[in-house]
């Protein structure tokens, strides 16, 4: 029996064409993508598609889109061997990260892809990205299990774990980087899978559990020289935020000034969740290394280890949506739930 893949088209450059009126890129109908990539018809894979209406530039992605994506995958889970999500690159790392936490007990591939150049343009990267994504979504091992039962991003011949990615270039074809986790697969003449790294479900016959309650009361503070107590307090202590991601320097360091630590202590005393994520693209938070990091720990800040901001946001949305108890959320934040942090 041949494999089957559902392509879910949300929008983004991959399916855009130039509006002759004003020269800007606007989304077009998915049927035109199939016409542009006739190679898709040559696969020994049944390919169906689902098109969002309206199609969106991924800068407009909201949590409601993630909920719709998770529900489509849940509703069509038994029908397909894998799923390919066509998505704009701008927020793809956020969407792939959050979906990885929303889809628990995943036994099938959910592969995000897109492109830097529209698919109708001669030098497009969209065709190769799409073809590789479909092949990976359909791939099975000798036992008939999915080769990649994970949420991943397939881009420029690399398959990267979704919750480890950051958009790294607005221009190069290798738009994504995964600095703290090697590729899950690389596409050359053959697709080479890094089988030791790819996560496997505990049970292959596990039921997919879809978490669609997201609590978005999260703020992000990028620590920077010249930051004032007023600005910091408005981001960290706002009564409407339940958690704040602190983007700190290097291995998790920040100001040692008393006002800075006082605001952190004030937020902790109010029960807020504070998560330390490094501004560096590569490497990890280690709050035991420098006194400036240690004082954050004493003020109640948790270590995000080597999590990306994108993954930290999705993890918080999902955990907070699951439970009103902040102590439980804090305990879960320190665990590696689906490959988002190094142990
Ligand atoms: N602005 C576009 C989007 O993210 C860029 C892209 O698709 O790469 O939807």
Task: Write a structural description.
The chain is an alpha/beta fold and 343 residues long. The protein has two domains: 3-210, L-asparaginase, N-terminal domain (Rossmann fold), CATH 3.40.50; 218-333, Rossmann fold (3-Layer(aba) Sandwich), CATH 3.40.50. The protein contains nine helices and 18 strands. The protein has helices at residues 30-36, 63-76, 92-102, 126-138, 229-236, 258-269, 291-298, 309-322, 326-333; strands at 3-9, 16-18, 25-27, 45-51, 82-86, 103-104, 110-113, 151-155, 158-161, 166-167, 176-177, 185-187, 191-193, 209-210, 218-222, 243-248, 273-278, 302-303. An eight-stranded mixed beta sheet has the order 4-1-5-7-8-9-12-13, with helices on both faces. Strands 15-16-17-18 form a four-stranded parallel beta sheet, with helices on both faces. A two-stranded antiparallel ribbon has the order 2-3. Helix 4 links the parallel strand 7 and strand 8 (151-155). Helix 2 (63-76) crosses helix 3, helix 3 (92-102) packs parallel to helix 8 (309-322) and helix 8 packs antiparallel against helix 9. It is globular. The mean pLDDT is 93.
Furnish the topology, listing elements before pairings.
Blueprint: E1 3-9, E2 16-18, E3 25-27, H1 30-36, E4 45-51, H2 63-76, E5 82-86, H3 92-102, E6 103-104, E7 110-113, H4 126-138, E8 151-155, E9 158-161, E10 166-167, E11 176-177, E12 185-187, E13 191-193, E14 209-210, E15 218-222, H5 229-236, E16 243-248, H6 258-269, E17 273-278, H7 291-298, E18 302-303, H8 309-322, H9 326-333
Parallel strand pairs: 1-4, 1-5, 5-7, 7-8, 15-16, 16-17, 17-18
Antiparallel strand pairs: 2-3, 6-14, 8-9, 9-12, 10-11, 12-13
Helix pairs in contact: 2-3, 3-8, 5-6, 8-9
The structure holds aspartic acid.
């Amino acid at each position: 029996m041949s494999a089957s893949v559902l392509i879910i088209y949300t929008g983004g450059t991959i399916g855009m064409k130039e509006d002759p009126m004003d020269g800007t890129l606007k989304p077009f109908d998915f049927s035109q993508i199939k016409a542009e990539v006739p190679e898709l018809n040559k696969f020994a894979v049944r390919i169906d598609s689902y098109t969002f209406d309206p199609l969106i530039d991924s800068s407009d992605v909201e949590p409601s889109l993630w909920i719709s994506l998770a529900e489509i995958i849940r509703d069509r889970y038994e029908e397909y061997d894998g799923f390919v999500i066509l998505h704009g690159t701008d927020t793809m790392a956020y969407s792939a990260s959050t979906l990885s936490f929303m889809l628990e007990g995943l036994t099938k591939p959910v592969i995000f892809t897109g492109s830097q150049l529209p698919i109708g343009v001669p030098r497009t990267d969209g065709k190769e990205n799409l073809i590789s994504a479909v092949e990976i979504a359909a791939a099975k091992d000798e036992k008939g299990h999915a080769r990649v039962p994970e949420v991943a991003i397939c881009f420029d011949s690399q398959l990267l774990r979704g919750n480890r990615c950051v958009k790294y270039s607005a221009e190069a074809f290798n738009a994504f980087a995964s600095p703290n986790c090697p590729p899950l697969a690389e596409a050359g003449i053959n697709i080479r899978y890094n089988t030791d790294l790819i996560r496997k479900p505990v049970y292959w016959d596990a039921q997919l559990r879809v978490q669609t309650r997201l609590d978005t009361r999260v703020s992000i503070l990028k620590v920077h020289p010249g930051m004032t107590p007023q600005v910091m307090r408005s981001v960290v202590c706002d009564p409407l935020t339940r958690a704040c991601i602190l983007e700190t320097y290097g291995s998790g360091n920040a100001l040692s000034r008393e006002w800075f630590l006082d605001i952190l202590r004030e937020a902790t005393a109010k029960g807020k969740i504070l998560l330390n994520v490094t501004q560096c693209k590569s490497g990890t938070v280690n709050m035991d290394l420098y006194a400036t990091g240690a004082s954050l720990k004493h003020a109640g800040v948790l270590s995000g280890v080597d999590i990306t901001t994108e993954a930290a946001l999705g993890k918080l949305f999902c955990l907070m949506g699951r439970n009103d108890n902040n102590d439980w959320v804090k305990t879960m934040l320190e665990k590696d739930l689906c490959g988002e942090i190094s142990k």
